[in-house]
Amino acid sequence: MQTPDSKSTTPSAAMVIVGAGHCGGRAAHALRNAGWQGAIHLVGDEAHAPYERPPLSKDLLTGDKTADACALLSPDAMADLQITRHVARVTGIDASARLVTLSDGQQLPYQSLLLATGGKVRTLSIPGGDLPEVLTLRNLGDAAALSSRLGAGQRLLVVGGGFIGLEVAASARKLGCEVTVVEGAPRLMGRAVPEPVAERALALHRERGVRVLLGVNPISISRTANSMSMALSDGSRIEADTVLAGIGIVPDLSLAQSAGLAVARGVLVNAQLQTSQPGIFAAGDLAEFPSVLSGQLVRQETWHNAETQAAIAAHNMLGGTEAYASQPWFWSDQYDHQLQVMGEPALAAHSATRMLDDGGLVIFYLDAANRLVGACGWGQSSRVAKELKLARTLVERRITAAPDVLVDPATKLKALLSHDR
């Protein structure tokens, strides 16, 4: 068996990527950019070429972007790069023989293998949760199905007050829908954002006409003469034309488990994104990897994670030893507002809140030595973009700054970059 840095172009020297989404598509492109001349096989069971997922809950629903505009690699681009795409499922991985078996019977010998299968969408496990009017949102087909049911006067019931649910709620309101959001927790967006940001998001959605119910759970869904009826844990009922289950995803670990890979909350990898089996890497939503800040194992379901890990995985599939060192970062667009979270706020000893114009804010999270470990910001997109970009840079560089300096509106965040060490 050839070593990972071999440049042989024999059939056995293929790079195989399982999962043809964002992370898989980027990794395939990165392999070519790194100079790999051998075969690249990109395997996924979705008919569409690799594309970005963030527009699914926003621009695709409102019609401001087409499916083609979301593509990462068009079929022509993949042909130019000599990337072979297989629309199929992987039915088995033989790690000792370095062989992948597909649902169409093909077998692909690999030199290095990347698992980038992402996650499976959670569904409502309640009576009526499988009715055809109860939808989920994970891929282009889901977005098309949901979009066809949104329009002026349509009643949409969203289960889940996380990012997907709230983004869909904002998009549906833009289209003139009547929208209700049901969230079982006492506030929106769970532990992903601090309470001051959750409160501002709640106020914004209610201001824009969304009915938001907190602390209640769906019990059952039934079909009435002209609509759907959802029974809630507080004894009330809500009528709707369409229900969206926006309750997250679970990592797709079945293939990794059958291949004998070590798994926990995700597929366990080291800093180089190498799994417990030689020659097999994992990246994106399903990878559980050591945090660059704490060393603790984390799993991230973000655009940034898929984008950045794809490049590191591709480099190391070719024999590199680069450690993944990017800090967490994600954003959510809701109406004309944006929130961002960067770094790992959970590692903080204390925080400092910097107020911005028009109700915006940035919460900085610091360790005991006043070194930045995270930040979270919220406000009108056009007004907070610069401050959030600077905050992210400060966190990435782990700047040390006193809390009173960070909250002082007279302090220019850009000036703090001179404290870089």
From TrEMBL:
E.C. numbers: 1.18.1.3
Cofactor(s) this protein cannot do without: FAD
Stretches assigned to the FAD/NAD(P)-binding domain: 15-310
Domain Reductase C-terminal: 329-417
Keyword hit for Oxidoreductase: yes
Keyword ATP-binding recorded: no
Gene3D superfamilies in the cross-refs: 3.30.390.30, FAD/NAD(P)-binding domain (3.50.50.60)
SUPFAM superfamilies, sorted: FAD/NAD(P)-binding domain, FAD/NAD-linked reductases, dimerisation (C-terminal) domain
Protein's name according to its UniProt entry: 3-phenylpropionate/trans-cinnamate dioxygenase ferredoxin reductase subunit
Native species: Rhodoferax ferrireducens
